[in-house]
Amino acid sequence: xxxxxxxxxxxxxxxxxxxxxxxxxxxxxxxxxxxxxxxxxxxxxxxxxxxxxxxxxxxxxxxxxxxxxxxxxxxxxxxxxxxxxxxxxxxxxxxxxxxxxxxxxxxxxxxxxxxxxxxxxxxxxxxxxxxxxxxxxxxxxxxxxxxxxxxxxxxxxxxxxxxxxxxxxxxxxxxxxxxxxxxxxxxxxxxxxxxxxxxxxxxxxxxxxxxxxxxxxxxxxxxxxxxxxxxxxxxxxxxxxxxxxxxxxxxx
Length: 252
Fold this sequence. Notes:
Blueprint: E1 3-6, E2 28-31, H1 48-59, E3 66-70, H2 73-82, E4 89-94, H3 108-113, H4 118-127, H5 131-141, H6 145-153, H7 157-169, H8 174-179, E5 190-195, H9 204-213, E6 217-221, H10 230-233, H11 235-247
Parallel strand pairs: 1-2, 1-3, 3-4, 4-5, 5-6
Helix pairs in contact: 1-2, 4-7, 5-6
């Protein structure tokens, strides 16, 4: 059965390079959201709902439901699909389920991106430096150096515009409203990955509460100093966590 990987922001599909070969189901297909290593279709406005529709259309191409794995905004896209079109999914994995808790507040940079003027300045500061400097900034934030350079090569003005549009559309209470439907995600087996030091996806309480509402198994990953990109820092451990979850589902 097919495994589909959906990455987030400010990333391209290269972010999966260290994890994908270690996953024991497949084939593995990387789905790149428009603007994040993939072209932006005409009239695409990069809203939360448009990304949900994009992912639905991608999954409808497969003959059978897929094992869906999402990181960062990719994880949010995954949840938005599972809450609305669960028949497209055999199982799901998400590491940012806390975004849908009713008390979640966007991290500081997310709030900057959502602010006209300040957001444009922050995006320029991210994409204007040479690619080696952009890669170094990703490494400093916790991305493994082996994937930071190819990810940084995909950061451009198109991605920046999509970031701004997405965060402005997702400003609270938008995510809290979407989170009212979390119980629908329990229609399919789910794994909520909680990297202990990842402070972008909500508090421990928020992540646990959202995971419980979605009926998800929780896998805690601790001991990673900079944990947001846990699957680049320790891909063996990340893959083992996902593979164990799949093994518990039986064949398929």
